[in-house]
Amino acid sequence: MGTQSSAALRVPLIDSAILAADHPGVADLFAVLAYGEISAFYRLAEEAKLSPTLRGKVAVAKMAAAEMAHFETLEAALASTGADIFDAMAPFVRALDAYHASTDPSTWLESMVKFYVGDGIAADFYTEIAGALSPEVAAVVQDVLAETSHSEFVVEEVRKAVAVSRSERDRLTLWGRRLLGEAITQAQYVMAQRDELTDLVLTATGDLNGIAELFERMQTSHAERMAVLGL
Amino acid sequence: MGTQSSAALRVPLIDSAILAADHPGVADLFAVLAYGEISAFYRLAEEAKLSPTLRGKVAVAKMAAAEMAHFETLEAALASTGADIFDAMAPFVRALDAYHASTDPSTWLESMVKFYVGDGIAADFYTEIAGALSPEVAAVVQDVLAETSHSEFVVEEVRKAVAVSRSERDRLTLWGRRLLGEAITQAQYVMAQRDELTDLVLTATGDLNGIAELFERMQTSHAERMAVLGL
């Protein structure tokens, strides 16, 4: 997340400032979240083909529909900043598509772990950022990241499978690590490209040390989520 | 719709009766609608690959999410009848999958026409049936069939394309006819298999003449919808 390129990062003027809704990074934040929702929608719909049952397909379709409800919230929030959502999303298409291409699940269980773990990593990151934003911006971010009841389905499916298969458990444990690694790689790529977003994250976390600590907390949460899945 | 097999159809006992919510055909009706929504969801997600733009993909994802909102309404309605939704949907999987397989769009415009026309045909049919149902059942059916604002996007896309290309217009006109034909074929197949549903339709329409008149009205509405698309 830019810790290797500190020279390129500006020192924040105000420590832990409450950012105004019109900080230019806010439109970027809504846009990257919005493209995240639309790409998650299509990946889920595609990955549902791996489902062995209609029950699984229905569960995935509900998850995907929930992503679109979040997309519409972000679309409305972006419209209120005066930005065109398609222009605003364009800079994030490459990184998010690359994340999904590099973490293409080959089994139903990999797909379920990806949904749960990927959503969790994103929620950890954006929720921390939201804490430093103006209340109206924070409300939008928290709303679209709220965990839904759909994750119960995923937890059940994965726990059941790994309880009876040690090799499945080992495979999915490695898969979870890869998801975290790829997410961080693509987040770094995005930050390197988008000064306003980097500014916003730096202001939210305080300084480069703050970013490093945020990443440590995210790794801890990731490990906790893996444990919930029995991994 | 069974007009060729009148011997197999029972004569309704009550002419244009208001059906009770516990008519066994009501669970069938909710179930066929529910599987219609889930299969439409996945077809839309698949067909969105044909979209030349991200704008088109977003529009389709919103349509698909709206289908899932309808699915959840039907799931709740079915639960209130005591039926398991997966058991209830099972008899309709083959016919609806066959409809989609036989009308697999090969272009983005075919996909858009299919969405608009297919939804319209289904709405015409089920709305007429709903008129004869108890108010609480009718409310569920009308709710899930209500036209959404998404269809404006489809109308615009198709009208724009056919205004500048006569060959495209001719091709999509034929495509629209094929959609109606395939929908009627699969509806007949379903009716032949499901006595309770046939009973419900017969009661709603009065008799076999009523069914024939319903089909004539559906063809008129279909022609009107095609005209809206510029076809």
UniProtKB/TrEMBL annotation, chains A, B:
Domain Ferritin-like, residue spans: 25-202
Source organism: Nocardia bovistercoris
Protein name: Hydroxylase
